[in-house]
Amino acid sequence: MVTSMKRWWRHLTTGSLARRRAFPGLVMQQIESAIRECESRHTGEIRFAVDTALSFAELSAGMSPRECAIEAFSKLRVWDTAHNNGVLIYVLLADRDVEIVADRGVGNSRVPPSEWEACCHAMEAHFRRSHFRDGAVAGIRAVADVLGRYPPEPRVADAGNELPDAPALL
């Protein structure tokens, strides 16, 4: 129950000011540049999304960060790529939690879950020290490395930039 109350408190007190401190405009531009640069190395599509905190209804329903990431994957249409090669990096700021959701072209049937977990843990370690820019860029590069090691099968030509490179604010 204590953990639950702490989580409620974090979500109710984490607002847009905290998000702007963690991810100011310059950091958002650097994230966008990192995505653009990393996508030039593989055919995958990376989408980065920051969710400040869960709503009262989401907290009441007991939504996990993973469930929120899957919902964001759908809402942001990360699945809507020609080769099913979209990957969402989802940050839930109030929980300092990172989730990665990958479409079936690069999903867990081909990539060991430990690969995605390592990307998340690296970002979360930076975030715990309030190094949000470093964590975001390191995570994007780690995801790009995974996509480079596990290209979509069969190998396909790059369909171009199908998803926005700019981070999404949820």
Q: What value does the average pLDDT take? A: 88
Q: Which class in CATH terms?
A: Alpha Beta
Give the beta-strand count. 4
Q: Approximately how much helix is present in the residues?
A: 40-55%
- CATH-defined topology: Diaminopimelate Epimerase, Chain A, domain 1
Q: Helices and strands: which structural class? A: alpha/beta
Helical stretch count? 7
Low-confidence stretches are none
Instruction: Round the Cα radius of gyration to an integer and report it.
Output: 16 Å
User: What is the succession of H and E elements?
Assistant: HHHEHHEEHHE
Count of structural domains: 1
Protein name: TLP18.3/Psb32/MOLO-1 phosphatase superfamily protein
Organism: Panacagrimonas perspica
InterPro entries: TPM_dom
What does it look like?
- The protein is of the alpha/beta class and 170 residues long.
- The chain has one domain: Diaminopimelate Epimerase, Chain A, domain 1.
- Helix content is 49%, strand content 13%.
- A four-stranded mixed beta sheet has the order 3-2-1-4, sandwiched between helices.
- Helix 3 packs parallel to helix 7 (132-149) and helix 6 packs antiparallel against helix 7.
